[in-house]
TrEMBL record:
This is Ketose-bisphosphate aldolase. Zn(2+) 2 binds at D103, E133. Pfam families: F_bP_aldolase. One of its GO terms (molecular function) is zinc ion binding. GO terms for biological process: carbohydrate metabolic process. Its EC number is 4.1.2.13.
Amino acid sequence: MLLTTRQLFEKCYGRYAIPAVNVFFMEEIHGLFAAAQEADAPFIVQTTPFARDYAHADMLLSMIGAAARIYPNVTYAIHMDHGYEAHIFDAIEKGGYTSVMIDASHDDFETNVARTKAVVEAAHAKGISVEAELGVLAGVEDDLTVDAEHSFYTNPQQVVDFVNATDCDSLAIAVGTSHGAYKFSGGQGLQFHILEEIQKRLPGFPLVLHGGSNVLPEVIERINAAGGQLKTDAKGVQEEEVRKAIPLGICKINIATDTRLLWTMVNREFFRDRADEFAPTTPGKIFMEEYKKFMLKKFELFGCTGKA
Ligand code: G3H
Ligand code: 13P
Ligand code: NA
Ligand code: ZN
């Protein structure tokens, strides 16, 4: 069943979180839907402007629509991740998304409010949910790189005014995570005191954690053992942090880096070990299987297995 993120969050708040995964190509979509059907777990499939530029929005939405027919027993939302007005208004007009994110977090507070509010009005008129963002994450997202000095945590003093002024349905917050493989290079981890302050002021209101990848050291090691040259100080959100964040109102956890690393690992190992192969479908099949296993583990960790 295709739902809005608002509908999904009404059921999960404080009890479990829903993985929101960025997709770029067919094998990921198969792996995701297959895992969700098997686990009976809700999920959010999301596309960034980068993904839309790469594959084309029609291609992505068509593949997602096909997956919904192939795997009919799934509960999910289709979300636009890190959208800007051009993409969002196009998507609202053409349809296909049940949820959009307006990321005006790099603007000052008043501009963020104004841009978010305009998107909320247009989206709500079509029954589409809106995620907004307050605070700036470090790291790489699309073609924008934010260094640590220009990132800042969400100010808990601003969250009530922001939500009231914009009428957004969920709020992405900056509480120590960053985008990409090289998070927490200072080792600081999730800032729970800030998350607690935010949740206290917005009880019952769905919060979103960007930069939610785990970046398993074993995966980095395997990639490097198969010819990769990734930095080994990569570190992501730890499992204990996820478990602690859910009762504090984190309803949606975004994942893109982990599945990219998985693709890199599967393909590097495949072409290292099977130098005589050249059929894309052979590593493709392995990747789909590994992706499915990866998602089954995330559903367990996020507590959403059996909740669809
Ligand atoms: O914002 C987070 C995602 O990691 C962005 O991924 O820009 O490559 O689609 P993408
Ligand atoms: P990661 O880079 O941790 O996968 O974060 C993804 C994200 O926040 C997408 O919006
Ligand atoms: Na998002
Ligand atoms: Zn993000």
